[in-house]
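Running co-folding for uridine-diphosphate-N-acetylglucosamine.
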Amino acid sequence: MDKIIIEGGRPLHGEIFVSGAKNAALPLIAATLLCPGEHTLYNVPDLKDIRTILVLLETLGITYHYPEPHTLVINSDHVEGYEASYDLVKTMRASVLVLGPLLARLGRARVSLPGGCAIGARPINFHMQGLQKLGAQLELEAGYVDASVKGRLQGNTIYFDFPSVTGTENMLMAASLAQGKTIIKNAAKEPEIGNLIDMLTAMGAKIDGRGGDILVIEGVAELKPAATTIIADRIETGTYIAAVGAAGGELTLRNCNPAHLPSFLEKMRAVGIFIEEKDTVLVAGRSGPIKSVDIKTMPYPGFPTDLQAQIMALMTCTNGLSVIDETIFENRFMHVAELQRMGADIRVEGGRAIVAGTGMLTGAQVMATDLRASASLVVAGVAAQGVTTISRVYHLDRGYERLDEKLRQVGAKIWREKE
Ligand code: UD1
């Protein structure tokens, strides 16, 4: 197991190329199960979670290769397996994304229930209720959802109590091959959903309402493979902006999409970080002190929960008071205890964290507890005085491509050692 060591307190200067989005690549890879043929995905990030979903797809019968780095070719001619085992789902709950496409193509899917994870209970009841609405028979046995349908799924109207991201993605994939019209109300609007809609449309699906919270899918009998480019990772982009806000300096972020970070960029400007947006390039930096702001996580286009931990690390570097409300996940403050080890003054009251900025953190030994919590410790570490040692960084490798290397290229003193 690796640990990351950071000697903090150095401003960051230079250019970083942002990778493809993990949360877009996962559903797009799952979508290749929908029809036989050779599917090409460009800008695929090299991450542990991507390797995990490819292992899962291999157990179902697909083959894949990378003709060049970040270009993934998947052959899904033979899909015979229909099970996502507990061992895979427990390491990555996004494995549930195979439920919709397997059911639509094979009429059968058996997927382990994810159970709890570090940031909360994370049930999949919306996915299950949605598929039942489309005519699937669902049984729960031995910790698995066993879903089956005789013939094709049937279009219907689905209403989500909450705009679930992977729930919406599962319904989009299932409904694309259903008979008749499906309407998803209160659908999630995250940019990753738009990426999936673009891929499904290129495959021959008929989907209206892209970008809105009502999606209308006219099912088709057949889909064909298509080539699609994965969008830039908005969470990786935001993590570098938080890092430069905390450590100081100026970063040019290339291959990103500033339009996918509306609320985040507005907050960063309010913090005192200057931001310039030009197509796929974002320049962010600061020279003077930063101010505290209040944050409330919300579904897109609101402030992303996946950037809450990183912003909390940034807020500890101000001299003001910041109130951070986490409304998406009930237990997403695992990073608080670790930031406190670095001198942060944070009080948690239910889903609210109150951060009293201390101006400066000090390096300490800390532990990564989940993906975004790990990223917040890196943000804290590059800004802190002294040495920060982050153990259990496998969480970080699930969702950030070469984060330490990219930060080293812009002047951070950061390296890996074996634990
Ligand atoms: C996705 C992202 C994750 C991000 C999250 C919220 C992927 C692979 N992951 O996760 O990085 O943090 O969106 O933006 O894209 N819920 C239910 N029942 C369900 C489904 C969800 O109660 O069937 C609840 C969850 O517990 C949570 C909320 O709804 O409180 C949002 O979850 P959801 O949008 O589904 O998150 P994911 O799709 O799992």
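Result summary
The chain has 14 helices and 24 strands.
The mean pLDDT is 95.
Job closed.
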